[in-house]
Amino acid sequence: FGKRVSDNIIQGLAEHFPILGKVASGAIVINLLISAPLQIFCIVTAFEASGESAVHTPFTGPNVVFRVVLVLLLCVIGAMLPYITEVIGIVSSVFACCNNILWPMAFHYAGRQQANISPAHPHLRAVKYAGSFIVGVIVLVF
Fold first, then answer.
1. CA-to-CA distance for 69 and 19, rounded, in angstroms?
2. Which residue of 63, 72, 82, 92 is most buried, as measured by CB atoms within 10 A?
3. DSSP assignment string, 41-80
4. Which residue spans traverse the membrane (predicted)?
């Protein structure tokens, strides 16, 4: 491929390797079918917990309308908004790096500080924390 690759790698694969393109497209659809409901569930649950009105009460008429409008809005945004894939990629990278590397390291460090546990090798611990932080920042940036 090299410089001749199309912007959408799946379309490029489908032109030259139809079976591989179908497998990749199927994998994307399966990923969307699994991940979208989980993310929408988190949004709806947080919204419902934020108030006491009919729209915040699960499975009332206004709540069902809110859920349908939310899904339709997400579909319209996905279809119409330019560069939505890139924005989702950047946001996902930030959250993944924070959730998988930076936050656990910060919580571990804070827990050690609160427990007043003296390390056997304080310099080695500092290197460990600095190394983890550097890896997290590098993964976040690149």
1. 36
2. 63
3. HHHHHHHHHT--SGGGSTTSHHHHHHHHHHHHHHHHHHHH
4. 23-44, 64-84, 90-111, 123-141
DSSP, res 116: T
Residue 88 in tokens: 């989702």
- DSSP at 6: -
Q: What Å distances lie between residue 18 and 42, 65, 133, CA to CA?
A: 36, 40, 42
40 three-class SS: helix
Q: Which letter, b or e, does each residue of 16-52 get, where b requires 16 or more Cβ atoms within 10 Å of its Cβ? A: eeeeebeebeeeeeeeeeeeeeeeeeeebeeebeeee
Helix pair angle (9-16, 18-49), 10° resolution: 150
Tell me which residues of the chain have a pLDDT lower than 70.
1-2
Q: How many residues are recorded in the chain?
A: 142
Residue 12 is predicted with a pLDDT of 80
Tokens 């119409």, residue? 80
Closest Cα to residue 111, out of 99, 135, 129? 129
